[in-house]
Structures are given as C-alpha cells and as structure tokens.
Amino acid sequence: MPPEAQVRVLRSGLEESVHLVDVAVVDAAGSLVASAGDADRVAFARSSMKPLQATVSMSRAPFAFTDEEVAVMCASHNAEPVHRDAVRGILSRANVAESALRCPSVRPWDEESALAAPEPRAINSDCSGKHAGMLAACTAQDWPLETYRDPGHPLQGVILEGVLAATRRSEVHVGVDGCGVPVHGMPLRSMASVFASLARPDRLGHLSAHAARAVEAMTAKPYLVAGRNRVDTAVMERASGRVIVKAGAEAMMCAAALEPGLGIALKVRDGSQRATGPVLIGVLRALDVLGERDVEALAEFAAPDVLGGGKPVGALEVTVELTAGP
C-alpha cells in the first residue's frame, strides 16, 4: 500500500468518517524528503502564506514593529483584545486609520471576545493583522491605500515575486482569498518549500532578515498567531522555539521545523479542519520534531474526543505513514 495520512472518526465503536490527507516534507534545498498521499496536489495556500506575506510587507515598511505586531501580521487570530491591540499598534506606527482596513467586517472568532465586542468590524477579521502590515508597507512606499488588495497593486506584485522566489517556481495560480487579497495556488511540495525557506531564511536573499524577524516573532509570541483553543498556538507553545505553525482555510496546514530546516505542508482532501491538528502533530512526531510527552501534552488537539450528550463517546484516531524521498 502507498504511504498515507488519515484521520478516522470513531463514535461509540463505529467508524463514522475518514479524512484522507496529503503531506509534503521538503528540506532547505527544495528536495522532497518525505511524503504521504500526493505531494504534488495543487491547492491554494490560503492563510498558511501569511508569514511570507508579512515578510514582504515588512521589507517595504521600515518601522520598528514589536514582536506582538509582527506575529499578528502572520496570524489568523481570534480577535481577542490582545490581537486587536497589536493590529492597532501596526496602524498607529504607520499612521494609518483603522477605517483603511479592507478585510471583511465580522465578529471575533473567540466566543468570549465576541460577547464583549459583538459589533462586526474589520479589525475583528482573522486577517486584520496581515492587512495592517500591507497598509504599513503601502504608506511607507507611497502606494495607494484604497486598492492594496488588487492583484495589479504594486504591493501584491512584490508579494508574488516573493512567493515565486520562495517556491522556486516561475508561476503560481493566483485567485482571491476570503479576505479579498490575492491567494496563491501551487503543489504542496512548493508550499513546504516556503516554510523550509523560513527555517533557513538566508536563501531568501533580500528578504532574509525580514523572514528571520517573522520567525522570531512567531516563536516569541505564539499566542498572537492564533489564540485561545487554537492548534497553531498550542503546538508552538509546547515546542518552545522548535517549530512555527500556520493554518489556512479549507484544512490547509503548514509548519517549519527550525532545527532540521524542514518545511511541512498538509491538506485534508475533504476540507475538514478537524483533521488538521491530529495529522500535523502526527507528522511532527514521525519526524522526531515532537516527542511522546509533547504529543501527550497536546492530546486535545492530537486525539480530540468525539462527544455525545456532552461526554466523550469516541475519538479521532490518526495514522501517519511517511515515505522517504520523492
């Protein structure tokens, strides 16, 4: 049988669902070192591309951003107060009004935060940090603010150049992300190459210092990257500087194992987000990036309960079988 990654949903002793997952693991040279399923599956990177987008934005925004501000540029955040404060910090540093944000107006993802601030606002968007970083870059470069989301905008052009450099590709499929900015489609192994480059930023040329800054901020302030009850934050907090993690919509998940310089990209075929945490943690364990004690500490994400009447009646069980090489 070919190597595979899958998550089985077991309820009261019956297999209720199965989520199949494609995985690519790439080294800093861009070589595929391990995979499961189809490493060449083409998909949109969605929010997993935010650390690279933030890298490019910072390269054009010469402001002394804090760790919190850089981390929230890389984030799909819950819009908890700490996240909104960091976004406002970016805007204030660049002297940009909050009204310039062009991301959708929504309520916070986080239930507690939504109760405290129920009015839909652009700053509550999980992408508002990315948008604030883009606005800071546009202000510094004297580029138009109103059209910063457009594919033909100068900022989106330099972001595309950064994506092509990090993936070693001559072209990618460009679409529209949920927040309105361009989104980039490519094979999973190319997404993994982006994260391998973040682990070894020297290969990114003029972007290297800014990529290193993004990684530094994500490892220093993992709570700003996602927040309460989020697998990105939980894994980074547990890994204590060994890993950066960034989820994306439609069950996309990418990570960089910093010490070995590996990039990881995985995509659940049916788009079920509940399978991403178990497979991510399973892949990191298979690569010896996380140990058994780490997996045990992350049990609520590695093997979450299936509930019936508010009580556990089953669990999500993960299988990760990686094969070496292309």
C-alpha end-to-end distance: 16 Å
Mean pLDDT: 96
The fold-level CATH name is Beta-lactamase
For the biggest sheet, the summary is: 9 strands, antiparallel
Sequence of secondary-structure elements = EEEEHHHHHHEEHHHHEEEHHHEEE
Radius of gyration: 19 Å
Say how many strands there are: 12
Instruction: Output the number of helix runs.
Output: 13
- Envelope shape: globular
Domain tally: 1
What is the CATH C level class, in words?
Alpha Beta
CATH architecture: 3-Layer(aba) Sandwich
The computed structural class is alpha+beta
- Helix coverage percent of residues? 25-40%
Can you tell me the residue ranges where pLDDT is under 50 for at least 5 consecutive residues? none
Strand content: 15-25%
Question: What's the SSE blueprint?
Answer:
Blueprint lengths: L4 E7 L2 E13 L5 E5 L5 E3 L5 H10 L7 H7 L7 H13 L17 H6 L11 H14 L12 H14 L5 E4 L5 E6 H12 L8 H13 L1 H4 L5 H9 L3 E6 L3 E6 L4 E7 L7 H11 L5 H6 L1 H4 L2 E4 L2 E10 L2 E2 L2
Antiparallel strand pairs: 1-2, 1-11, 2-3, 2-9, 3-12, 4-6, 5-6, 7-8, 8-9, 10-11
Helix pairs in contact: 1-5, 1-6, 1-8, 2-3, 2-5, 2-8, 3-5
Structural summary, described in words:
This protein has 326 residues and is α+β, with helices and mostly antiparallel strands. Helix 1 crosses helix 6 (154-167). Strands 1, 2, 3, 7, 8, 9, 10, 11 and 12 form a nine-stranded antiparallel β-sheet that branches. Strands 4-6-5 form a three-stranded antiparallel β-sheet. A hairpin with a 2-residue loop joins strand 10 (305-308) and strand 11. The radius of gyration is 19 Å and the shape is globular. It contains 13 helices and twelve strands. The two termini are 16 Å apart. The mean pLDDT is 96. It has helices at residues 50-59, 67-73, 81-93, 111-116, 128-141, 154-167, 188-199, 208-220, 222-225, 231-239, 276-286, 292-297, 299-302, and strands at 5-11, 14-26, 32-36, 42-44, 173-176, 182-187, 243-248, 252-257, 262-268, 305-308, 311-320, 323-324. The longest helix is centred in the middle third of the chain and has 14 residues, at 128-141. It has a single domain, classed as 3-Layer(aba) Sandwich (Beta-lactamase), CATH 3.40.710.
